[in-house]
Design a protein that fits this description.
Strand order of the largest sheet: 3-2-1-4-5
Pfam families: DUF938 (PF06080)
Shape: globular
CATH topology: Rossmann fold
Number of domains: 1
Strand content: 15-25%
CATH superfamily: Vaccinia Virus protein VP39
CATH class: Alpha Beta
Protein name: Methyltransferase-like 26
Largest sheet: 5 strands, parallel
Number of helices: 4
Organism: Halcyon senegalensis
Number of strands: 5
Family: Belongs to the UPF0585 family.
Mean pLDDT: 91
Structural class: alpha/beta
Low-confidence stretches: none
Order of helices and strands: HEHEHEEHE
Oligomer: single chain
InterPro entries: DUF938 (IPR010342), SAM-dependent_MTases_sf (IPR029063)
Length: 140
């Protein structure tokens, strides 16, 4: 499991903002995290927000292994195994996520390190996959 220093530093402040959106509804909230990296955020947020069904994803095989290690180590029922997701590909390839089914689409520290077509893909996917009133949450 990887534990990037930046993720350790920013997880608390990000969680405080996520609580504003994740605490509003009733029932389970579906969350897709695009570019989950090491998985530290996914594990931390899933633990802190038990009303979510947290789906981490990444394109990097090394990141997927780290996320899987967090999933196994934490054994939280609301933290799902990671999926391979290339945000530059159409939403139809995003792990079977159906239109208008997500409450939150989370992307942390992806846009500033990826190419423009990845950011465009993120916004296109959000436009299709988020429920009415759903939130695209970006950081970094």
């Amino acid at each position: 499991m990887q534990a990037p220093a930046a993720a350790e530093r920013n997880k608390g402040p990000i969680l405080e903002v996520l609580r504003e959106y994740a605490g509003a509804g009733t029932g389970t909230l579906r969350v897709l995290e695009v570019g989950a990296g090491a998985g530290l955020h996914a594990a931390y947020f899933a633990r802190a927000l038990p009303q979510t069904r947290w789906q981490p994803s990444d394109i990097d095989p090394r990141a997927l292994r780290s996320i899987a290690a967090y999933v196994e180590a934490t054994r939280m029922p609301n933290l799902l195994p990671p999926i391979l997701l290339d945000v530059a590909q159409g939403w139809e390839t995003w792990g079977g996520t159906q239109p208008a089914t997500l409450d939150l689409l989370v992307s942390i520290n992806m846009m500033h390190i990826s190419e423009l077509h990845c950011t465009e893909g993120l916004f296109k996917g959000a436009g299709v996959l988020l429920k009415p009133g759903g939130v695209l949450f970006t950081y970094g």
